[in-house]
Specification:
Blueprint lengths: L11 E3 L6 E8 L2 E8 L7 E5 L10 H4 L13 E6 L18 H19 L4 E6 L2 H11 L4 E7 L8 H17 L2 H10 E3 L5 E3 L5 H12 L10 H10 L6 H15 L18 E6 L7 H10 L5 E6 L6 H4 L1 H9 L4
Helix pairs in contact: 4-5, 4-6, 5-6
Length: 336
């Protein structure tokens, strides 16, 4: 497949720039799926990790932010960072946005789980998803009890109506007033606020997503509390990662564009469908990309064999990296 020229079907090589990590290309339903598998002991429980974006695989954070946000997950799990079709290592120019549906990704995830179970001789594995990947993660928790022991949703996405913006507005208004950031507060009030009748409204709907992201970054409520620029802290950092070949770095951002137009992009978490496995939500206190207020509301509505909500008070959208030890401690509470 031309979009993944540097990765071949069945390839298995040491990933540059990442310790204890292998880079694989596995054929799933006739399509190349790229993945990174990282572990210090392959007898450990196996964890399938689904990244956010959509179309923004996150394994490279373990490399370029190793000193600032050391991730020790591989000491406790054999972690598969799966690039599902259309994103990252699995980008291909032949894939059309409308082909990337919830149904397709659900079927593919189950086949990846089956592959991992067979490869590592496991009866079941664990499931973790982040941000927009949590739509798929929760759907799997609601439909698949055969492959997974439980589901960990980090930055669980749930956004009924304008609530994402309204809850973020309330929180960030207090933050900006506390630190005296009048410029950011003014900009936020130009984008959204309350009408004279007390109704929350979006005042500038054009490119609200991009403009709102800038407000989140100003408040320390985006990917991490420290990040202030997606260009500097995400785009250029990813381009510096050795774990990707040059062509894969280009495909990475092509994949993000593809997934932004995908059918999956329109799917929202269902709050009225019972979960077949235990579910545990991990939210950063400062996360207003996917507000903890809404994630908690979703979890309260869900039926599940077991469920628990964890708040990480020094994190924004990425507790696994920002408060790694505490997240792993919480995960291990539920490992058999």
């Amino acid at each position: 497949m031309t979009g993944c020229a540097s990765l071949k079907i069945g390839s298995d090589e040491i990933a540059k720039g990442l310790d204890n990590t292998r880079k694989l290309g596995v054929e799933i339903s006739g399509v190349l799926n790229g993945m990174y598998i990282t572990s210090t002991n392959e007898n450990n429980p196996v964890l399938l990790f689904i990244s956010g974006g959509p179309g923004v695989p996150e394994v490279w954070l373990n490399e370029v932010y190793a000193k600032q946000y050391p991730n020790k997950l591989a000491d406790y799990f054999t972690v598969c960072y799966w690039d599902y079709p259309g994103e990252g290592l699995s980008y291909d120019k032949k894939i059309k946005p409308e082909e990337i549906t919830l149904e397709r990704l659900t079927a593919d995830a189950r086949k990846v789980a089956a592959y991992l179970k067979e490869k590592y001789h496991k009866e079941k594995i664990y499931l973790m998803a982040h941000s927009s990947g949590t739509h798929l993660g929760l759907h799997l928790a609601q439909t698949d009890s055969e492959d997974f022991y439980c589901y960990f949703g980090m930055g669980q996405a749930y956004s009924p109506g304008l609530r994402r913006y309204e809850d973020g507005y309330k929180f960030m208004k207090d933050e900006f007033e506390k630190i005296g950031n009048k410029k950011a507060l003014k900009k936020m009030n130009e984008l959204a606020g309350y009408s004279e009748t007390g109704e929350f409204i979006i005042k500038k709907s054009k490119d609200i997503g991009g403009e709102w992201e800038k407000i989140l970054l100003s408040a320390g409520c985006a990917t991490t509390r420290e990040m202030r620029s997606d260009i500097k802290d995400i785009f250029f950092k990813q381009l510096s990662a050795d774990c990707y070949a040059f062509s894969e770095k280009i495909n990475y951002w092509k994949g993000k564009k593809l997934l932004s137009k995908s059918a999956y992009r329109k799917y929202q978490a269902e709050d009225d469908k019972p979960c077949l496995i235990p579910v545990y939500f991990f939210s950063g206190y400062y996360d207003y990309t996917c507000p903890p207020t809404l994630a908690k509301e979703l979890l309260d509505k869900l039926e599940a064999p077991d469920k628990k909500f964890y708040t990480f008070y020094n994190s924004a959208h990425s507790p696994l990296w920002e408060e790694n030890d505490l997240v792993i401690e919480a995960m291990l509470e539920h490992v058999r």
